[in-house]
Specification:
heterotrimer, A alpha/beta (445), B mainly alpha (272), C mainly alpha (291), A: 445 residues, alpha/beta, D-Maltodextrin-Binding Protein, domain 2, 2 domains, five-stranded mixed sheet, 20 helices, 46% helix, 8% strand, B: 272 residues, mainly alpha, MetI-like fold, globular
C-alpha cells in the first residue's frame, strides 16, 4: 500500500523566504510605497473571471473593505489553462497570492500534499460548520485530518439536459434512466438536422472527466480506495462500449468538443440533449430565450442497475502557505460567504455554482433570482446531486483523496483511451491495458 | 490587361487571407441571440454596438490596451536601437569572433519558452521587477533581438560600401556617415524589424501569463483571454469585439508605416 | 575630429549593448533549464533529487519523444514550405504598382498580427461542423453532403494545422521579402530584359539570387519558430486525435505543467535544442555551399 508523506523534505522555506524578502524589499522600493506601513493588501486569484463574475467579486471586496479599513483586497484574474503555470511560478518564488478560489478540489489536495497550503479549519469554524450541508467539505479532508480547502460552491457538472418540445415530438414522456433508454431516446430525437447528444470525443480534459462519470455509472472506478489502479475491470469495458455506441448520435465535430462547444451545441439547439451544469440556464436565457421554458434536468442515466454518480469539481477556496497577513486573509475568506455579497456573486452565473450552505440555498434572495425561480426543480436537483457528487480526486467516501488526480487528467490518458477505442477501433483490452499501465506509472512517479 | 488581371488576383487573395478579420467585425456587431443560429447567418440581421460598449465600460479593457501600447512601444524602441547598432557592428567592421557572436545570439531561440519561464520569473523576482511591464519589456526585447540582428545584418550586407567611404572621405564622422548614408538604405529593414518586434510584443501570451499577475501591468493578450475565453465558457460577443479592437490599431499603424517600405525613400543611393 | 577609434574596436563596441541584454536575460534561464534537466522536480516548488542523465535516458527510451519529433518535423516542413510559397508569392504581387497598395499590404499582414489565441478560436468556429461557415459553403455548393470533421480525424487534423499555420505566418515572409525587393536595383532587371529574358527567367536569374540571403535568414528563423510553436497547435487540436498532432512543444508543456515534471520537461527541451542545432548546422553548410 503506497504511503505518501504529507510533507516533502526540503530546504525550501529558507530559500524562498530569502527570495521573498529580497523581492519584497525590491518591489517596495520600486513602487515607492514606503510609507504604506499600516495598509495591508490581500491578493485574490480566481480563474472564473468573466465580466459578470468580476463585478460580483468587486462588490464583495467593497463591502469587506468598508467593514475593515486598513485592509485592501485586489482581485487578479487567472484562467483554467494558465493557473498551473502561474501558481507554479508563485510557489517557486514565494510570491503567492493570499487566497485562490474556484480551483477544483483535486488541485487543492495536490498542493496541500506538498505542503503548499494552509489548513482551512479556522475558516470553517468562522463560517459556522453547522450551516453547511452534511459532508459538504468531506472532499477536502486530507491524510493528516485537516481541511486543505473549503467549498466555495458545488457544481453538478454532468447533468442530463433535455427539451420538452423535442421529447414530446419523439413521444418521450420522461427523461431516460438507463443507458438503453438514453440511446433509444437519442435515436428517436435525432432527426431534421438535430443530433442526439453532445458527448465529447476529443483529446482534452472534458473527455477524460466525463468518461470517469460513465465508468462509475457502470459500477466501476478508475482507482481503488487505496489508490491502486482499478481501471482494468468489466465496468470500464461496458462504459467504453456504451460510449462508443453513442458516437453516431453526436455531431461529427464532437471529436473536438470541449466544455464550451458541448454547451453551445445544446443551448443553440443543435443537439437534443446536453451534458453540463447550471450554466445552461443562464446561457439559454441570454442567447436562446425561446428554449427557456423547455428545459428539463435529470441525473445522467446509468447502466441498468447502476448507481447514480454526479461529477462535482468542487470549486474551492484555498490559502497558499507563505502569503503575508494570514489572519486578515482568513477573515476575508470567511467574509466571502457573507450572504449580502455571496449571493449576488453566485447569481452572476445562476444555477452553475450552488451554495454549500443550507441557509443560503434556502434564502429568499437566492431563490427569487428570475432564472433560478423559473427553474426551481432543476436547481434543487442539481444542488442535491452536487452535494452528493464526486470527482476523480475523491471517487467515493471510501476512497483516500487522490492528490495526483489533476496530473491524471492533464496526462490525457483517459481521453486517449476513449479515442483509441471509439475513433481508431483499437481493441478495448489493449487500450484499457495501456491506460492502466500509464496510470500506474503516473501514480508512482 | 494582364496588369488588371494581376491586380484583381492580388486583391482576391489578399481579401481571402484577411477575411477572418471581416468575419470578426461582422460578428462583433451581431446581437447576442444571433450568435448560435443554426444555420449561421453571415450578415447580421440586427446591428448593435452593445458588445463594444460593454467591453469598454465594464471591463479593464482600456487599461490592458494602454499597457500593451506601452509594452510594445518600449520593446520596439529598445530593440531597434540595440539591433541597428549591433547589426552594423557585425556587418561593417571586421573583427575576430564576429561570426561566433552572431551565431551565439541565436541560442536564445533554441529552447521552448515553457522551460525558460520559471527561471526567468525567479530572476525577475530577484531583480524586484516581478509583475511590472519592465520585466516583459526585457524578456521580449531579448527574444526579439536575435532575429532583429540577423535580419538587419542581411539588409546591411546588401548596402554598397562606396557610399559610406565617399562620405567618410568627405570628412564626415562615422556616426554622421552612418546616419546620412547607411540609415536610409537600411530603413526598409529597420521598419520591418520594428513591425515584427511590435507584433511580437503585442501578441505574446505565455511570458505575459507568468511574469505579470496584476491588472495594473497586464497586457491585452492575457487580460482578454482570462476574462473572456476559458475552457469552460467563451464569451463570444465580447471576445469578437475585443479582437477587432486589438487588431484595428495595428492595421492603421501598419498601413502608415508600410509607405517606408516603398522604393521612393531608397531611390537615389541605389542607382549610382 | 581626427581621433578615431580603430575599426577593430568599434565593431565589438556596437554589439556590446545587445550582447549584454541577451546575456543578462536569456543566458541565465538557459543555463537554469540545463541544470533543471538533471533533476526530477515537482514544478510548483522546483525541488527534487538529482538524477543525472536519468531524464535523458527516459527521453531516448520512451517512444513519446521520437513520435512527437516526427510529428513536429511533418508540421514544420509542411507549414514552412507553404509559408515560403505564399510569402514570396504575395510579396511579388504586392511589389507591383497598383491602386491602394498600402491598404493591401496592411491587410495581408492581418494573419500575422492577430493574436494566435483569437485566430485559433475564430478558425475553430469557422471549421465547426454545426455552425461553421466553411462547412456551410461546402454543403450549399453541393461539394459535400455531410459536414467535414476538420480537426477531429486524421489526416484532416494535421492538414488543418499545417494550413492554418501557413496562413498565420506567411506574412512574416512577405514583409521581409518585400523590403528586400525594394532595394534590388532596376538596372539588373533592365539588363535582363535587354538580354531577352522573360518574367520567369528574370525571377530566377535576378530576383532569387538577390533575395538569397534574406530568404536564407527567413527560412532559418521560421523553421526555428515553427519547430517551437505551441499556442497554435495546442489550441487548435489539443494534440489530438489520440496524440496524432502532439508535437514536441505540446509534449514539453504537458510534462512541465500538466504532469508537474519540470526536470523531465527540461530534458525534453534540451533534446529539442540538440535537434535544432543539428538542423542549424546543416543550414549553415547549405548557406556556405550557396555562396
Amino acid at each position: 500500500m503506497p504511503q505518501r508523506s504529507a510533507r516533502t523534505d526540503r530546504t525550501g522555506p529558507t530559500r524562498r523566504a530569502v527570495i521573498g524578502g529580497i523581492a519584497g524589499t525590491g518591489a517596495a522600493l520600486l513602487s515607492g510605497c514606503g510609507s504604506a506601513g499600516t495598509r495591508k493588501t490581500l491578493r485574490w486569484w480566481s480563474p472564473q473571471a468573466s465580466p459578470d463574475q468580476v463585478a460580483g467579486y468587486r462588490r464583495q471586496i467593497a463591502r469587506f473593505e468598508a467593514a475593515h479599513p486598513g485592509i485592501r483586497v485586489r482581485f487578479e484574474p487567472t484562467s483554467d489553462e494558465g493557473y498551473p503555470a502561474q501558481l507554479a511560478a508563485a510557489f517557486a518564488s514565494g510570491q503567492v497570492p493570499n487566497i485562490v478560489t474556484h480551483l477544483p478540489s483535486f488541485a487543492a489536495q495536490g498542493y496541500y500534499a506538498r505542503g503548499l497550503l494552509e489548513p482551512m479549519d479556522d475558516v470553517v469554524r468562522a463560517i459556522g460548520p453547522d450551516r453547511y450541508y452534511p459532508h459538504a467539505n468531506d472532499v477536502y479532508r486530507t491524510a493528516d485530518g485537516k481541511l486543505c480547502a473549503v467549498a466555495f460552491g458545488n457544481t453538478a457538472v454532468d447533468m442530463l439536459w433535455m427539451r420538452r418540445d423535442l421529447m414530446a415530438r419523439a413521444g418521450i414522456s420522461e427523461p431516460p434512466r438507463t443507458w438503453d433508454q438514453l440511446r433509444a431516446a437519442c435515436r428517436a430525437m435525432q432527426r431534421d438536422g438535430t443530433y442526439g447528444a453532445p458527448l465529447p470525443f476529443g483529446s482534452n480534459s472534458m473527455t477524460s472527466l466525463i468518461f470517469v462519470g460513465f465508468v462509475h455509472r457502470a459500477g466501476g472506478q478508475v482507482f481503488a480506495p487505496d489508490l491502486s489502479v482499478g481501471l482494468d475491470a468489466e465496468p470500464t469495458y461496458a462504459a467504453l462500449d456504451f460510449y462508443r455506441s453513442m458516437r453516431e448520435f453526436c455531431p461529427p465535430g464532437a471529436t473536438g468538443f470541449g466544455w464550451a462547444e458541448s454547451l453551445n451545441a445544446f443551448t443553440s439547439g443543435a443537439t437534443a440533449t446536453g451534458i453540463y451544469g447550471g450554466r445552461v440556464l443562464g446561457n439559454v436565457a441570454r442567447q436562446n430565450p425561446k428554449l427557456s421554458g423547455q428545459l428539463v434536468c435529470a441525473t445522467y442515466p446509468t447502466r441498468a442497475g447502476g448507481a447514480a454518480w454526479t461529477f462535482n469539481d468542487f470549486p474551492s477556496v484555498l490559502i497558499p502557505r507563505g502569503a503575508p497577513h494570514l489572519a486578515e486573509t482568513k477573515m476575508f475568506a470567511a467574509g466571502l460567504f457573507d450572504p449580502a455579497g455571496y449571493v449576488p456573486t453566485l447569481l452572476s452565473a445562476p444555477g452553475h455554482i450552488l451554495p454549500p450552505l443550507k441557509p443560503i440555498a434556502e434564502s429568499k434572495t437566492f431563490l427569487s433570482d428570475p432564472v433560478i425561480a423559473a427553474n426551481r426543480p432543476a436547481v434543487e436537483l442539481m444542488a442535491t446531486s452536487a452535494a452528493n457528487g464526486r470527482n476523480l480526486g475523491f471517487e467515493s467516501e471510501k476512497h483516500r483523496p487522490n492528490p495526483r488526480a489533476g496530473e491524471v487528467i492533464a496526462s490525457n490518458v483517459l481521453a486517449r483511451m476513449v479515442q483509441q477505442v471509439v475513433l481508431e477501433n483499437v481493441n478495448p483490452r489493449t487500450a484499457v491495458g495501456e491506460a492502466a499501465v500509464h496510470l500506474d506509472r503516473l501514480m508512482k512517479a | 490587361m494582364k496588369g488588371r488581371l494581376l491586380t484583381a488576383l492580388t486583391w482576391a487573395l489578399v481579401l481571402l487571407a484577411a477575411f477572418p478579420l471581416g468575419w470578426m467585425v461582422l460578428t462583433s456587431v451581431k446581437p447576442a441571440e444571433e450568435f448560435f443560429a443554426s444555420p449561421p447567418t453571415i450578415l447580421p440581421r440586427g446591428l448593435t454596438l452593445e458588445h463594444y460598449a460593454r467591453l469598454l465600460r465594464d471591463t479593464p479593457f482600456l487599461k490592458y490596451f494602454g499597457n500593451s501600447m506601452v509594452l510594445a512601444g518600449s520593446t520596439t524602441v529598445l530593440v531597434v536601437l540595440l539591433a541597428t547598432a549591433g547589426a552594423w557592428g557585425l556587418t561593417r567592421y571586421a573583427w575576430s569572433g564576429r561570426e561566433w557572436v552572431a551565431r551565439a545570439v541565436l541560442a536564445a531561440y533554441l529552447l521552448p519558452s515553457v522551460v525558460l519561464i520559471l527561471p526567468l520569473y525567479l530572476m525577475m523576482v530577484r531583480l524586484g521587477l516581478a509583475n511590472t511591464i519592465a520585466s516583459l519589456v526585457l524578456a521580449y526585447a531579448s527574444f526579439a533581438l536575435p532575429y532583429a540582428l540577423w535580419l538587419l545584418r542581411a539588409f546591411m550586407a546588401g548596402i554598397p560600401r562606396d557610399l559610406e567611404s565617399a562620405a567618410l572621405i568627405d570628412g564626415a564622422s562615422r556616426l554622421g556617415a552612418f546616419v546620412d548614408v547607411v540609415l536610409p538604405q537600411a530603413l526598409p529593414g529597420i521598419v520591418s524589424t520594428a513591425l515584427f518586434t511590435f507584433i511580437l510584443a503585442w501578441n505574446e501570451y505565455l511570458f505575459a501569463l507568468v511574469l505579470v499577475n496584476t491588472d495594473e501591468a497586464r497586457p491585452l493578450t492575457t487580460g482578454v483571454m482570462s476574462m473572456l475565453a476559458s475552457a469552460m465558457n467563451v464569451e463570444w460577443p465580447l471576445l469578437m469585439a475585443a479582437s477587432v479592437l486589438m487588431s484595428v490599431p495595428l492595421i492603421l499603424m501598419l498601413g502608415f508605416l508600410q509607405s517606408y517600405l516603398t522604393r521612393e525613400l531608397s531611390a537615389g543611393g541605389v542607382k549610382g | 575630429m581626427s581621433r578615431r577609434l580603430p575599426d577593430a574596436a568599434v565593431g565589438p563596441l556596437l554589439v556590446v549593448p545587445a550582447v549584454l541584454l541577451l546575456g543578462g536575460v536569456v543566458a541565465w534561464p538557459l543555463a537554469s533549464a540545463l541544470w533543471l534537466s538533471l533533476h526530477s522536480l515537482y514544478t510548483p516548488t522546483l525541488e527534487g533529487p538529482w538524477v543525472g542523465l536519468g531524464n535523458y535516458a527516459a527521453v531516448a527510451g520512451d517512444g513519446a519523444f521520437w513520435h512527437a519529433l516526427a510529428r513536429t518535423l511533418v508540421w514544420t516542413a509542411g507549414s514552412l514550405s507553404l509559408q515560403l510559397l505564399l510569402g514570396v508569392g504575395f510579396a511579388l504581387l504586392l511589389h507591383r504598382e497598383m491602386r491602394m497598395r498600402g491598404l493591401a499590404r496592411g491587410l495581408v499582414l492581418f494573419p500575422y498580427f492577430v493574436s494566435t489565441v483569437v485566430a485559433v478560436l475564430v478558425w475553430r468556429w469557422l471549421l465547426n461542423d454545426l455552425y461553421g461557415l466553411v462547412n456551410q459553403l461546402l454543403l450549399a455548393s453541393g461539394l459535400r453532403d455531410t459536414p467535414v470533421d476538420f480537426l477531429g480525424v486524421m489526416p484532416n487534423a494535421m492538414l488543418s494545422a499545417v494550413a492554418i499555420g501557413a496562413w498565420k505566418f506567411f506574412p512574416f515572409v512577405t514583409i521581409a521579402v518585400l523590403a528586400r525587393l525594394q532595394t534590388i536595383p532596376d538596372q539588373l532587371y533592365d539588363a535582363a530584359r535587354l538580354d531577352g529574358a522573360g518574367a520567369w527567367d528574370r525571377f530566377r536569374d535576378v530576383t532569387l539570387p538577390e533575395l538569397g540571403q534574406v530568404l536564407g535568414i527567413v527560412v532559418l528563423l521560421r523553421a526555428i519558430w515553427d519547430f517551437k510553436e505551441f499556442d497554435l497547435v495546442f489550441l487548435l487540436t489539443g494534440g489530438g486525435p489520440v496524440d496524432s498532432t502532439r508535437t514536441l512543444p505540446l509534449l514539453v508543456y504537458q510534462q512541465a505543467f500538466g504532469l508537474n515534471q519540470m526536470g523531465l520537461a527540461a530534458a525534453h527541451a534540451v533534446a529539442m535544442m540538440l535537434v535544432m542545432l543539428v538542423f542549424a548546422g546543416l543550414w549553415s553548410l547549405a548557406m556556405r555551399v550557396r555562396a
